[in-house]
Amino acid sequence: ALGTALPNLKYFSEAFVATRHISEMIERVPDIDCDDNRGIIVALFSLHLQGRGLYYVDSEGGRLKGMCFSAGSGYAYAY
User: Fold this and answer.
1) Whether pTM exceeds 0.85
2) Phi-psi bin for 10: left (phi > 0), alpha (psi -120 to 50), beta?
């Protein structure tokens, strides 16, 4: 029985290592502070989005449809 399982030992060890890496990724604490509202504005990057792909969602989850919103670079919201 051991002789037939021996060729698969490599795959079991690789699966064990992969499981350990996945567990470390799941349990890690990110360096990003999600409660910090200041954010980072990159001065060299400029982006302006406009169109129907942007939409407004209020605090209750309601979405405004049929409007055209615009979001400039450095803003977390559309206006």
Assistant:
1) no
2) alpha
Interatomic CA distance for residues 56 and 38, integer angstroms: 21
Q: How many other C-beta atoms lie within 10 A of the C-beta of residue 78? A: 17
43-70 pLDDT tens trace: 544 555 555 555 666 667 676 655 555 5
Domain residue extents for the chain: 2-71
Q: What is the rounded distance in angstroms from the CA atom of residue 56 to the CA atom of residue 72?
A: 15
Residue written as token pair 């504005």: 41
Rounded Cα distance, 48 and 38, in Å: 20
